[in-house]
Every structure is written in C-alpha cells, then in structure tokens.
Amino acid sequence: MSTPSTSIADSQRLLNAEKRAEQWALTVLRGTTFTDCLKFNDLAPTLEVQTPEGKTVTIRGSDIYDSRTWKKFLANINQDENICQLTEVGERLAAQYKTWLLGGHTARYRALATEADLAWLERVITLAVTRHIMEQKYAAYTSQGLETFANPGTAIEMGNLMLLNHVTREIARSVHHIIKEPTQAQQLIEQFCEEQYRQMQALLKREPLLPGGTPPSALPAQKEEK
Fold it and tell me: How far apart are CA 222 and CA 30, in angstroms?
C-alpha cells in the first residue's frame, strides 16, 4: 500500500517527466507544415515501397499526420480526441497507431516490411502523435483556460511557435506571389523562418532547440532508437 509521501513523490516524478516531454516536443512544432517538421528531423517526407504484387506505392508522412486519419484512428480505439498528456498516454497511442496503420487502415501500409521502412514509420508516428497532443494541449489551454501544460512557460513558448508558423505561412504566400522562381522563393522563406526562430529564442533567453534532438525516455519510439 502506498503512503502519502510515496504518492506525492510519484506525482512529482510524473510531472517532471511531462515537463521534459513538453520541452522536447517544442522542437516538433517547428515548421509550418508536417512535411517541414519531417525535414527538420532529418526524415524523408515520403517512402516508395513495393507491394507483394510488385506494385510501387508511395507512403506520405503528411498522410500519417493528417487530422482525418488521426480522428479515424481515435474513433477506432474509442479514444477521446481531447488528449493532453505526452508521457504514458502518448507512448501508448503511438504503439496503437502503428498497429492500426499496418493492419487496420489502408492496404498500402502493409507494404512497409523492411527494418528501415518500419523505423521510418515509427519516427514519423512519434512526431505526428507528439504534434497532435501538443496542439490539443494548446487548444484546451487557450480556448478553455485549462492548465494542460506541466510547465506554464512551455505554453508561452508554444504560443510563440504557433505565431511564428502563422506569420511564416503568410510570408510564404506573399513571397510566392512576388517571386515566381520556386527555388529562390523557398530559400527566401527558409531564411526568414530561421531568422525569426533565432530571434524568438534570443528573446526567451534560452538555448536554441535543435531540430532532430532526442526525445525523453517517456516519449514513443525512444526505446526503438536506443
């Protein structure tokens, strides 16, 4: 039987784990699109795989993150969409999402069979699940006033990242309207995003969050990466 002191210690341990998870998760929010997120984390946006029938199919990371796919998965496992916990819950959902994609969703995912393909899938799922949970945390925090963040400072940083992503999208529209050469336009957008991100980190007076960083042990796929 646990004592009150043990329960308090366990609660503090879980709170600290969630704080660490949130801090790492901020890196996953960088990027106006999930494809940008994959690039920041050194992951290919797509994979081409061969089906047992010899047909080539394309697996897109953006489809794994797609809100319709995510909601369909949650409905399939009878999970409420209001998920605001990265530790334990995020790990469980990531494992279930992988199982569902490989066996309960469209047949194309069953073509992912090699170790490298499955490792790519697991990392993409980690980012997708983390991003969805962080977005839900922020939505509940701003619209309902719920204390969904273990660290209140993370909510501020989250808001800054969301604002940066919004501004970048607007700038991107303007740049593409003015500059017709795609490569030049993309380079200009990336330079803007990097500078805005650098200034935001300087304002917060903290070390920059490096894309591709290692998630804490409580987050999904960490065991596989070890």
Answer: 20
Cα angle 200, 158, 70 (rounded to 5 degrees) comes to 135
Closest among 225, 193, 222 to 20, alpha carbons compared: 222
Q: Give residue 137's identity as a one-letter amino acid code.
A: K
- What 3-state class would DSSP assign to 49? strand
Task: Find tokens 């805005």 and name the residue.
Answer: 196
Per-residue buried b or exposed e for 120-152, using 16+ beta carbons within 10 Å of the residue's own CB: bbbbbbbbbbbbbbbebbbebbeeeeeebbbee
Q: What is the distance between the alpha carbons of residues 93 and 132, in angstroms, rounded to a whole number?
A: 11
Domain boundaries, the chain: 18-147+210-225
Q: Is the pLDDT of residue 98 over 80?
A: yes
pLDDT in tens, 63-88: 999 999 999 999 999 998 888 999 98
On average, the pLDDT of the chain sits at 79
Q: Which residue has the higher pLDDT, 96 or 190?
A: 96
CA–CA dist 25, 149 (Å, integer):
12
